[in-house]
Write a structure and sequence with these properties.
Strand content of chain A: under 5%
CATH class of chain A: Mainly Alpha
CATH superfamily of chain A: Fumarase/aspartase (Central domain)
Largest sheet of chain A: 2 strands, antiparallel
Radius of gyration of chain A: 26 Å
Strand order of the largest sheet of chain A: 1-2
Shape of chain A: elongated
Distance between the termini of chain A: 53 Å
CATH topology of chain A: Fumarase C, Chain A, domain 2
Helix content of chain A: 55-70%
CATH architecture of chain A: Up-down Bundle
Number of strands of chain A: 4
Oligomer: homotetramer
Structural class of chain A: mainly alpha
Chain lengths: 398, 398, 398, 398
């Protein structure tokens, strides 16, 4: 097996069509290389656990270390995957090729393809969710500062595209911040993701009565949880990840939507720090980061629906639904984390224009035939709500 | 305004194309009538709260009682809705028509269309989720009995359509049961749904500094929660409902998928209590309930994606996303609760055929060249997992 | 069987949550009543065809007439549907109840449930598509007039939310019109929808060698086409309907999106004829029709995905996918036709504001540092494109 | 600009999570490399057209040739893309870097980012659809042979999971073949895809009155069609591609679904040529190709819904919808063509087992209490339908 399949450059996707993700941390955490590394971690942890429980010989521990350091080329696995329908058999062959004879039979012992892939995806998801929480935290802190700064800055609230009533910039951003808080709460409240180790039919039969113990040992090694029972066809953990990522996507997407609205040429209440240059018009500065975030937010729900539909998985392991999850979950993780990272960047660079806000608000005041005291009455009402949001923020980020 | 628009029969949907829901509790809880009743409850509760806080005159309390008893025809509202884009203005006109002059201005005071509809949908969702929890509880108890009864009944486990290894009927059903447990846990862990009362732009400005207090009073009246701030464009509560319903749909859909597989003519391991008659073939008994459940489970994820996409809602109230939620949320609630109710019925009537199970298992044993002790080794391993699932069950349903 | 199930009012959906459709022609064409009528038409046509071919006695022709006039209550069928999974068996019982003994066995002879429902849905779709073509035609004529009137009206073109370059109102509306043309072309190019009459397993075995002739006779009676072979599990006709409706939805949705943008308070380039009143703010006139159209356009793609997924239908008739089509197809038809009708109304009432257009364009001209000749150079370039669009229009609507 | 960004291996997707596509022709046709090549082709063709029309100097033709041969690294473009939101500006910089000063201003002259990306995607789609038609043709020829061979092979037809009535293998495969015919017809009937060249706001203003001529020249160079007017926000061409790919996906998905059903251990009517090995059970031969096809067929409709939703694109170029198309369209093309290629391979290797068919049919005959003549009556009825399908086939593949 060569270290690199030679058609890689001709077939690789390297982010060209997903600028939202290109160069982000989440892109790297969800690459094919990352998946392979996580699959290798699983096999290594399993072998170590088998040695611990006296199922594999004690020498297996050293082999587990060696496995963890094996260089495996993703494209080579990919090209070998179609025969069996998954990239696991070629991986095991690769790992066994380097193992001594007495340990060789214990590599992957008692596990099934789905255990390897599902555990790898959970390890990836765990990393990504940690990163998302971090980026959302950065975003929340930025927004909280903007809420405080914008507390007494009146501007026009819009409903169904029309000027409605006065509000404050602080109130609008408090709404953004609350969405981010909700997304962070969901990540924090989520239980640790589970290891998958059910064996061919979810019974861990190869380990005899020690099944739950072996599962617990592998889980401990990988910082994952022990499931109540096999989740080969009970996709609750995946559904939870999806729900969490949708929350992050919604929080970021809402902010991008408002920036896109406020940044319109006639409105001009905000600009991105670095307006995106146009390939055709030098006078333009596009809100390019918001466009990318808005675009990614549109892709998440349909990707989620692939996974939600795959929850109906027949038999002990299904013929189609599960395979459809892989790519969709990877993209949810990648796009969801890209939304978090990009929105945090975006928010920190926003330039608010109070002159434009005042001008637009004057238009409303004139159309209503009101005066400044009316504005004050309206905007005063935002204070208790803003205080509630900031109080939550201080609890979450003390 | 007549009490009933006369084209109702010609346009009404009465369940003809959704047999899964026809006649269920959830159908009634999510009808247009139920929505109207909930909107009326909101307006009544708001008026009462305004009287309590001295905003409306004390006589408003009596009017609030009268409002609560108003008969409002859904079709009449529907026909008047397109002008303003929502069925709320015609409702308010209807309610005001019967109110005395001094109270009239206080009906709907400080609220906006979205407050009425969103609160009504939350009231509906609260009712439906309670019903779903009840039906899933009934289902869980049935399944737990079947797990216990099937604990030592070996049968063939199938993966990717093929005979794989032996398992037990108890283990398979324990998988179903765990899915139901997960769905119930999600309902139980869900926070109380919030009232919506932000007023035109989410600031409750009409109530002055008492905004949060008025909101709290209405929430208390309706057994709903007080949101940290307006959720007009922060759709976390709706997303949580959707996620919960998807969980119920997945739990039921998984069971239906397995019944459909096991009920196949060549497999014959289970039958529905009352096989559905065929319009063309009297010798057939279709697993009609499972078909309906499987069918509904396919509809849920795309409906969910409408709502997930609507989470990106621009400005203080958006021009499109929110309106798209209404019908999709109603159908998610209706189909989700129908899945729970029908699956509970379905499960309680399942007739397992141990002769068929033994026959199919023999085929596997022969193909592997094994014997009964091999089967016993495999099936023994299921016990600790079954015990874990049953222990959880006993904690949840003591 | 009573003529009306008594819980109808308590469960009926009468358009409350879909104001876009309430009161439209498409709502009526897609009601449960309309489905029942179409199912009855199928059974009547089949019986007549059987008499024609000497399979049923000649007296069956008179019974076919009587059947066609039978009053059948949709709710009664709906309540009886869950047992068998479809509303067809109770319909047949109802029709047989009134038939003489010698004709009774020939009612529904050789047909299966799916034939009845699928043919009824095709009849409904045929009616709806005719209506959509008519509404889109009305819309196209309106838009063509506006293109001509706006041919020399300069206004600012916007890209990625920003002022980009000058264009003309005629050019913008020519883009709308082209979308409508595309949608109409798709309807006109669509082949006649097929009858479904395959019998239990798609072989028309009950008719012996005359199968294709009987199918042709029923098709002729119903103005439907004869399929090359049974399409029970080959859903091309349904996919074609879906694609066509998505085209109508896109054409209307694009117009609504632009109206929503141009109608914003700061932009003010267009208003709807009757601005939607606000339940809370009397100074507002919401673009309510555009909001409804935009909202419906969001629901169509996910509904489409239910049907697209159901194209993977196993065996001779599947256990789930087909059942999931019914409701989704009805809603696609209803919402798609509502978009066409409402957009035609909307367009005919648009009030364009050339003062606002000039003001916004001035802003662009100033920001670029250009002058009027620059605007003229830019807008002159639109003429050949406008001419191409109008030429197509004149070919399509001579 | 180095020729290769050095983090490529760490971020590249090389097919690991999409074994259906790994190693297929469609994978290569849709890689980032292929997109870059197509973008370069567009810029080269545009420059040549500008020289032809005397807009650019005649020396530009030679530069156009040089551009066409430029080596551009996709990852470098991807990393530079987020600033402007698309990989076009860095591409133009790269191309201009090598151009002489007098030609430099004419590179990309009059075009906009969307023109480059949309045209590149059309070029890619054109290639992929040609490949899909070829693979479906191969599939159709295989199936037609199987229809002829299976014409008189009786087997049991199944509906709603249950034995229903006898049919023939030829009739079942004729259903598959008809689906493939439908998909091929759709590709053949599709109009040539259009070039995109509208310039910043769709008016081709940079080319003055020659706009349509320049567009026609570029279209001719690239074997694409001239649109009636700019389709920047009229996404009919993309919708047509999506519809066509869904048809291919449905045709393949249906076959895979039936193979998965018929290959079940208890049914055994068919096997794949090379059963996929199991990572855990050596006695198993999984129908791995069918699983992969079934899995891909599940991903297509949600991806389609992203693009269908993006058809509602505001203004002259929208802020989000269009960007969301790129990745979804690529995956639709890749997965759709993978389905066609894999299903063609799958079908050609199917091993039908007439003994199993007879055994299963005997079970039905016994349950009905019928005899062989009954089977013959039923199966004879399939002949005229089979003949119709084969007649169509011979017309399509003479």
């Amino acid at each position: 097996m060569s270290s690199r399949a030679d058609d890689t450059d001709a077939v690789a996707d390297v982010g060209l069509l997903t600028p939202i993700a290109a160069g982000t941390v989440g892109e790297r955490l969800t690459s094919d290389r990352a998946v392979v590394d996580a699959m290798v971690r699983f096999e290594s942890a399993l072998l170590r656990a088998l040695a611990q429980h006296g199922i594999a010989p004690t020498t297996a521990t050293g082999v587990a270390d060696a496995i963890a350091a094996t260089d495996v080329d993703p494209r080579t696995l990919a090209l070998a995957a179609p025969v069996g329908g998954a990239p696991v058999l070629p991986l095991i062959e690769r790992l066994r090729a380097a193992a001594p004879d007495d340990v060789l039979p214990w590599i992957h012992f008692g596990a099934t393809t789905q255990d390897v892939v599902d555990t790898a995806l959970m390890l990836m998801a765990q990393d990504v969710l940690r990163q998302v929480e971090s980026d959302l935290g950065r975003l929340a802190v930025t927004l909280a500062d903007q809420v405080r700064a914008g507390r007494d800055v009146p501007l026009v609230a819009r409903t169904l595209t029309q000027h409605a009533m006065p509000t404050t910039l602080g109130m609008r951003i408090a709404g953004w911040l609350s969405g981010v808080h909700d997304a962070v709460d969901a990540i924090r409240a989520a239980p640790t993701l589970p290891v998958s180790l059910g064996g061919p039919v979810g019974t861990t039969a190869a380990y005899g009565p020690e099944g739950p113990d072996v599962v617990a040992a592998v889980a401990a090694e990988l910082d994952l949880a022990v499931p109540v029972t096999s989740w080969h066809t009970r996709r609750t953990p995946v559904a939870a990840i999806v729900h969490t990522l949708l929350g992050a996507g919604a929080a970021g997407g809402k902010i991008a939507a408002d920036v896109l609205l406020m940044a319109q040429s006639e409105i001009g209440e905000v600009r991105e720090a670095e307006g995106g240059p146009s390939s055709a018009m030098t006078h333009k500065a596009n809100p390019a980061q918001s466009v990318l975030v808005a675009s990614a937010a549109r892709e998440l729900p349909p990707l989620a629906s692939v996974i939600e539909a795959a929850a109906v998985a027949e038999a002990e392991r299904p013929a189609g639904p599960w395979h459809a999850e892989w790519q969709s979950l990877r993209w949810l993780l990648r796009l969801g984390s890209a939304v978090a990272e990009r929105t945090a960047d975006l928010a920190s660079g926003l330039r608010f224009d109070q002159v434009a806000m005042a001008r637009n608000l004057d238009q409303l005041v004139a159309s209503v035939g009101a005066d400044e005291s009316w504005v004050a009455t309206q905007t005063d009402a935002t204070r208790p709500w803003i205080d509630r949001v900031l109080a939550r923020h201080e609890t979450m980020y003390p």
